[in-house]
Design brief:
This protein is α/β, with parallel strands linked by helices. Helix content is about 35%, strand content about 15%.
Length: about 210
């Protein structure tokens, strides 16, 4: 069991808590993290982008000039892909399927690896709770300042209170999630990871 300092919302140390080494202190698997990020990005794609082929572009039903005798190269349609305003060859189609698959063990290993990287790089902050007194943006900015966070930060908590949502919604570099909403893309995409004591317990129960 590795230890980490548990802080309060003022940035003061309350006590040391233990982290399960099977989750927070494994040797990260870069290949699995990469696959998980590709899967997460693929799942965000709507797949509605489309281009028209030469058969779908309006016009071009008649040969632009006769086959022989003009000195020009033979052409069958002014809507061929090499013509201006012609159809698109091999362009994206809405029937493209971007679905990726990943088994449960790989998903679990990817999250464990991403969490372990935060511990290795000293970017994990354990906080007692996120019970702030009001929903003002300044209150959340004071919390960020107390924790000495100056880049994109992901907060993970089991209690999404109204004050917390109101105080953080106008801050660009802050995102707040529940433990079951957290993905590898969320962890990797934020420089700092702040997790409440209760959220740590939930994460360990799910991933162990």
């Amino acid at each position: 069991m590795s230890k980490i300092a548990l802080l309060n919302i003022k940035g003061e140390k309350v006590k040391d808590i233990k982290l399960d080494e099977k989750i927070w202190n494994i040797e990260p698997n870069d290949a699995v993290i990469y696959d998980a990020i590709i899967l997460a990005n693929a799942s965000l794609r709507q797949g509605t982008h489309s281009t028209k082929t030469r058969a779908e572009v309006r016009g071009g039903g008649r040969k632009p000039w006769r086959q022989k005798g003009t000195g020009n190269a033979r052409q069958g349609s002014i809507r061929s892909p090499h013509w201006r305003h012609g159809g698109v060859a091999l362009g994206p189609r809405p029937e493209n399927n971007y679905t990726k698959k990943m088994n449960k063990k790989e998903r679990r290993l990817a999250i464990q690896s991403a969490l372990s990287y935060k511990v290795i790089k000293d970017k994990l902050v354990a906080i007692e709770n996120l019970d702030i007194e009001n929903g003002k943006t300044k209150t959340m900015l004071d919390l960020v300042s107390n924790l000495k966070l100056n880049k994109k930060t992901l907060f993970v908590t089991t209690d999404l209170s109204e004050n917390l949502i109101l105080a953080s919604r106008n801050i660009k570099n802050i995102r707040i999630l529940l433990p079951n909403e957290m993905s590898v893309l969320d962890i990797v995409g934020n420089e700092n990871l702040v997790v409440t004591e209760d959220a740590i317990k939930v994460i360990e129960e799910v991933l162990i």
